[in-house]
Amino acid sequence: MHWTEADFTCLARAWVTTSLQTTGRTKGFTFYQNVNIAFNRDPECLTRRSSESTKSQRYTLNAQCMAYKGIIAQERFRNSSGKTEEDRENDVHKIYQGLNSGNDFKHREAYKILAREPRWALRDDGLNHAGNIPRNVARRTSDNSSLGTRSIGQKLYRKNLATQKTMGGVVASGSGIQTMLEELRLEKRQTKEENERRRAEAMQHWQAKMDFKQTKEDRKIIQKDLSTLYGHQSQYYLQRQAEVIERLAKRGGPGT
Fold first, then answer.
1. 193 vs 77: CA distance, rounded Å
2. Least CB-packed of 27, 43, 57, 89 within 10 Å?
3. Whole-structure pTM over 0.70, yes or no?
4. Are 100 and 146 in contact (CB under 8 A)?
5. Chain centroid offset of residue 96 CA
6. How many C-beta atoms surround the C-beta of residue 173 within 10 A?
């Protein structure tokens, strides 16, 4: 069943509630069962969801929010003077769209809920919280620098690093963002053209191979000595030779 933005907002709220209530060591299965219970108890959640559904969508939500968070951290790191918070937010949305095939970031309310919870960025995604959060970890979390966490996985972490490198030299301005997006579109178009060229070459190679095979088979049939054949065999090869001659005539030559 389709998940709405309101559902994702409820899911973020359920995760935060469960995370705050979790003490000591908790198994992943138990944790997400509790998240699902909190989700279904939320009066704003109009549709009941299964534990597997909330767990799966939680990973999706977390990955997108962490990618969005990484862009925000990079924009703040650039210290773009003279820009309002609204301007920075617009820049972040443009960069996110440019890096995600024009798709807008749709989980703003859910992100605001998660961003207020320091435990969100911790490495175990709400599991195995042992009481207090170490000060150095909380500090890294609050300044949005803890991007290499298990909550989004190493693969997404590497993607975030690559994103930061891509954006590293871009000035946080409208023209800078536009330049970066144009470069991304150019690279995407060039990659598409290269793939199409390789596909066309592969098709040509395959067609040439099939034509050669067909020509070889046609020559074998035409050169068949029918004097050694009788009955059905002779009729078969006579018919095949007629088909070959007709096909070659349509192509404009014998090809032998």
1. 36
2. 43
3. no
4. no
5. 13
6. 15
